[in-house]
Write a structure and sequence with these properties.
alpha+beta, six-stranded antiparallel sheet, Arc Repressor Mutant, subunit A, single chain, disordered N terminus, 2 domains, 211 residues, two-stranded antiparallel ribbon
């Protein structure tokens, strides 16, 4: 039996709703993030105690495309990967995306080179909520994505910076936009934006004309 919820989310289910139409553990789930939140998707997979891979093909609020793969064992998150990001960092990237599609495939084999970073479901949900709140706050505090940044002249001497501030400054070039900085930095979008704000507050980054 094919069970369809609305017009965008479908999965295979038997008469008792346990998702076993063709075999003991078969389930397919697909749809869009416009109609179903990430939390709702995670809940369906967890309640079904499914093993497989959830693939998100999404776009961040800044228009940056991302692909996120979440592996599940018995309904629990076994690993999360988004490019070079793993675990909670990758989940923070997925959390802020509201545009895109998702598809869950049952019993997808994990390759030996996969870096497994298990994420407890309660931690995952708290991380999603925190990342979205941070994104909302940072979006209001930072300049528009098309505004160029340049290096500022700090008033403090000597200047003490954190490791994550150093990493962003190391890839910073005058004329780069917020999207450029996020793409060049090896951190989730919300973390890169937070560091940009910190550097602006300290006078180490300046937003505006570079010439």
């Amino acid at each position: 039996m094919k069970l369809q919820v609305r017009s965008t989310l479908t999965w295979n289910a038997d008469g008792d709703g346990h998702g076993r139409p063709q075999g003991e553990h078969e389930m397919e789930l697909r749809g869009t993030l416009r109609d179903f939140s990430l939390e709702a998707i995670l809940g369906l997979i967890r309640n079904g105690h499914k093993t497989g891979t959830l693939r998100l093909v999404v776009t961040t609020p800044l228009g940056i495309p991302r692909r996120v793969d979440l592996s599940f064992l018995g309904g629990e998150i076994a690993s999360v990967q988004c490019g070079s990001l793993h675990g909670l960092e990758a989940l923070r990237e997925a959390a802020i995306c509201v545009d895109g599609s998702f598809e869950f495939s049952v019993d997808s084999a994990l390759s030996p080179q996969d870096e497994n970073v298990p994420v407890p479901m309660d931690v995952a949900l708290a991380t999603i909520d925190e990342a979205r709140n941070a994104m909302k706050s940072l979006s209001a505090a930072l300049p528009a994505t098309g505004v160029a940044f340049s290096h500022g002249v700090p008033s403090d001497d000597p200047v003490h910076i954190s490791v994550e501030e150093f990493r962003l400054l190391a890839v910073m070039r005058d004329g780069m936009t917020l999207n450029d900085l996020i793409a060049a930095n090896t951190a989730p979008t919300v973390d890169s934006m937070r560091v940009v704000r910190q550097l602006m507050e300290r006078g180490l980054l300046f937003a505006g004309p570079t010439g």
